[in-house]
Write a structure and sequence with these properties.
The chain has about 400 residues and is mainly alpha-helical. It has twelve helices and four strands; from the N terminus they run ββββαααααααααααα. The strands form two sheets. The protein has a two-stranded antiparallel sheet. Helix 2 crosses helix 10 and helix 3 packs antiparallel against helix 7. The longest helix has about 40 residues. The chain is globular. It starts with 8 loop residues before the first strand and ends with a helix. Its main location: plastid. It is a multi-pass membrane protein. It holds the Pfam family TPT.
Length: about 400
């Protein structure tokens, strides 16, 4: 026997939310289970009663509760009226200005994601600071930036090959088109990496990073005059403090060196082209950030090795090594291993962060990373800084932050 049942009208609005109003006489059972009284003292409630609520989904809906519904064909079976355990009614709702149901699991996953990004950022900055410290120690004792750059790429490549072989990391699925698209990126990455290392071998770490904070200016100029892209007026205005701050810091630098200054400038230009080539060549490629940087390191190593041998050479390296070991001792080996390993790890974590966040958040994180490197290197190496020089650095970094805001 089939019967019809009139349902009470439920209004979801304001303080009358979930208050049934109907002319139908009350029954001994209700379709929806009674809701607990709203605790207005709880400030953590995710539902605002000042906005209309709409039912988005009702699961396990059973009007009779204790009776099992008949089959979809309408035939009476042996189990039509067998008592069953009362079904649980799950009702999901969403506010008027939202398109997805309110779900505690989503809030928990978003909180976990924020914690994950925070861990990435903290790890990224810490590893970058450690790398710059050991890199400068090595270059002060063993001033061969081409070999130092090569060892950094070699260590990262070896780490990833071992990770793939031991199944610690998933092996990327690549093809010939992938490597063709990666080649110009690797060329630009190699030039930028070597130029930055040459700069740090000639000037203080803080000065190199102050000049490298001017990379956004190169990005806008290259995109405007070579690619024909236009930007909003605030983007162009943000270049004024960047260029002005870098110029003020360079003029007032006590240990200014033209080779170190030009190395940082070339690094800026090379990394701009690296970013441009990455956007063009990596579209549609399903390779994670960690594996993408691993492949980039391997190709850059193949490109850099013959140039490092030609520019410096094994004989020069051997003579310099004997002198450095006699002055520093065996700990030089640890310094070189540390700077090589930490270089790979900090870059790898930065690419992993880029998988999780927007470009704007990444730019802000990169700006904050540069501040941490500048401050820590000044403290550790006791770099003399004049007030005017510090003011120029602060203006340049502030301009970089304003650029990241205006760009988005």
């Amino acid at each position: 026997m089939m019967s019809s049942l009139k349902q009470p009208v439920v209004h979801f609005h304001g303080s009358d939310a979930f208050r049934p109003q109907s002319s139908v006489p009350s029954r001994r059972f209700s379709v929806l289970p009674p809701l607990p009284a709203l605790n207005t003292r709880r400030s953590s409630s995710v539902v605002s009663l000042s906005k209309p609520l709409f039912v988005s989904k009702v699961e396990s809906f059973s009007p009779l509760g204790t009776l099992k519904r008949s089959s979809s064909t309408g035939d009476a079976g042996d189990n039509d009226h067998v008592p069953q355990k009362r079904d649980l009614v799950i009702c999901k709702a969403y506010e008027a200005d939202k398109s997805t149901p309110i779900d505690d699991s989503q809030a928990r996953s978003e909180a976990a994601r924020r914690v994950k990004i925070g861990v990435y950022f903290a790890t990224w900055w810490a590893l970058n600071v450690i790398f710059n410290i050991y890199n400068k120690k090595v270059l002060n004792a063993y001033p061969f930036p081409w070999l130092t750059s090569t060892l950094s790429l070699a260590a990262g490549s070896l780490i990833m090959l071992i990770s793939w072989a031991l199944r610690i990391a998933e092996t990327p699925k690549t093809d010939l088109d992938f490597w063709k698209a990666l080649f110009p990126v690797a060329v630009a990455h190699t030039i930028g990496h070597v130029a930055a290392t040459v700069s740090m071998s000639k000037v203080a770490v803080s000065f190199t990073h102050i000049i490298k904070s001017g990379e956004p200016a190169f990005s806008v100029l290259v995109s405007r005059f070579l690619l024909g892209e236009t930007f909003p007026v605030p983007v162009y205005l943000s270049l004024i403090p960047i260029i002005g701050g870098c110029a003020l810091a360079a003029v007032t630098e006590l240990n200014f060196n033209m080779v170190g200054f030009m190395g940082a400038m070339i690094s800026n230009l090379a990394f701009v082209f690296r970013n441009i080539f990455s956007k063009r060549g990596m579209k549609g490629k399903s390779v994670s950030g960690m594996n993408y940087y691993a492949c980039l390191s391997m190709m850059s190593l193949l490109i850099l090795t013959p140039f490092a041998i030609a520019v410096e050479g094994p004989q020069v390296w051997a003579l310099g090594w004997q002198k450095a070991v006699s002055e520093i001792g065996p700990q030089l080996i640890w310094w070189m291993a540390a700077q090589s390993v930490f270089y790979h790890f900090y870059n790898q974590v930065s690419y992993m962060s880029l998988d999780e966040i927007s470009p704007l958040t990444f730019s802000i994180g990169n700006t904050m990373k540069r501040i941490s490197v500048i401050v820590s290197s000044i403290i550790i190496f006791h770099t003399p800084v004049q007030p005017v020089n510090a003011l120029g650095a602060a203006i340049a970094v502030l301009g970089t932050f304003l650029y990241s805001q205006a760009k988005q």
